[in-house]
């Protein structure tokens, strides 16, 4: 994909600026700065109201568990670091539409004119997919916590370190948000001629193995969590094949 984009830039196809490699690096730096500024601006109010975010949103998955786990912190500065962690994660979520827009705008100079028309719809689809992934994680996390804590029910009282719990929550939520981008990425790459449904079907066995590996990385080290996470991953891969097929048929 990168090779084809560079060839397009080199030939001047779809590259309005016709810039050099250094110009592209400068553009990348500019867009990264914009993403950072927007993220920090979004994170500031989240830092001010981090306790309300913690009580209303982040503790919600624990409300579905019986008995409800207790959250504690065991170091003097842990609450401060926790507030920064919450503010940074919320800032990324709030700024995600701008971040996705900057990413696709950076890629767009390497596209043909007819491909550039899909940038705004793709940004909208990317943002919606990301938030769908976040919503899915909030449906999944209470189930995981309930099952995992049930193993010690009647013998052990569930006390979670707040930093570890929030870290687990943020990692799984952001991972789900990014994973749900698979169909959108499949559409864009197929639209650019860099991906075909036949290629995706041919790699399906490798994809299934990779789905279980990714599930093992982003979930707790138990078979149940990994299996539960691998199922939507495989489903999204199948949806990506379908999206790629529809895109090819539309081209024809």
How would you describe this structure to a colleague?
The chain has 252 residues and is mostly helical. It is built from 12 helices and 2 strands, in the order ααααβαααβααααα. The protein has a two-stranded parallel ribbon with strand order 1-2. Helix 5 (78-107) runs parallel beside helix 8 (162-179) and helix 11 crosses helix 12. Mean pLDDT is 83; it is low at 5-18.
Chain-wise SSE layout:
Elements: H1 2-11, H2 21-48, H3 50-58, H4 60-63, E1 70-72, H5 78-107, H6 113-116, H7 119-150, E2 159-161, H8 162-179, H9 182-191, H10 197-202, H11 204-218, H12 223-251
Parallel strand pairs: 1-2
Helix content: over 70%
SS elements, strand count: 2
The gross shape turns out to be flat
Cα end-to-end separation: 22 Å
Instruction: Report the β-strand fraction as a percent range.
Output: under 5%
Strand order of the largest sheet: 1-2
> What is the mean predicted local confidence, pLDDT?
83
Q: What is the N-to-C order of secondary-structure elements (H for helix, E for strand)?
A: HHHHEHHHEHHHHH
Short synopsis of the structure:
Helix content is 77%, strand content 2%. The protein is an all-alpha fold.
Features:
mainly alpha; flat; two-stranded parallel ribbon; single chain; 252 residues; 12 helices
């Amino acid at each position: 994909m990168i090779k084809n984009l560079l060839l397009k830039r080199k030939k001047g196809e779809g590259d309005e600026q016709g810039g050099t490699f250094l110009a592209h690096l400068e553009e990348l730096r500019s867009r990264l700065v914009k993403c950072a500024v927007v993220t920090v601006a979004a994170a500031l109010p989240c830092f001010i109201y981090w306790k309300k975010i913690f009580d209303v949103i982040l503790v919600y998955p624990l409300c579905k568990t019986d008995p409800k786990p207790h959250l504690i912190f065991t170091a003097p500065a842990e609450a401060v670091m926790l507030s920064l962690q919450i503010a940074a994660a919320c800032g990324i979520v709030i700024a995600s539409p701008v971040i996705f827009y900057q990413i696709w705008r950076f890629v767009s100079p390497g596209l043909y004119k007819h491909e550039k028309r899909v940038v705004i719809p793709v940004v909208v689809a990317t943002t919606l997919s990301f938030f769908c992934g976040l919503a899915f994680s909030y449906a999944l996390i209470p189930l995981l916590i309930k099952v995992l804590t049930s193993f010690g029910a009647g013998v052990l009282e569930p006390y979670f370190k707040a930093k570890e719990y929030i870290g687990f929550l943020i990692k799984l939520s952001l991972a789900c948000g990014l994973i749900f981008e698979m169909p959108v990425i499949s559409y864009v790459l197929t639209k650019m001629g860099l991906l075909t449904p036949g290629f995706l079907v041919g790699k399906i066995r490798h994809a299934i193995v990779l789905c279980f590996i990714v599930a093992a990385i982003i979930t707790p080290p138990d078979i149940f969590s990994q299996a539960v996470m691998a199922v939507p991953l495989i489903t999204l891969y199948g949806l990506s094949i379908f999206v790629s097929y529809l895109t090819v048929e539309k081209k024809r």
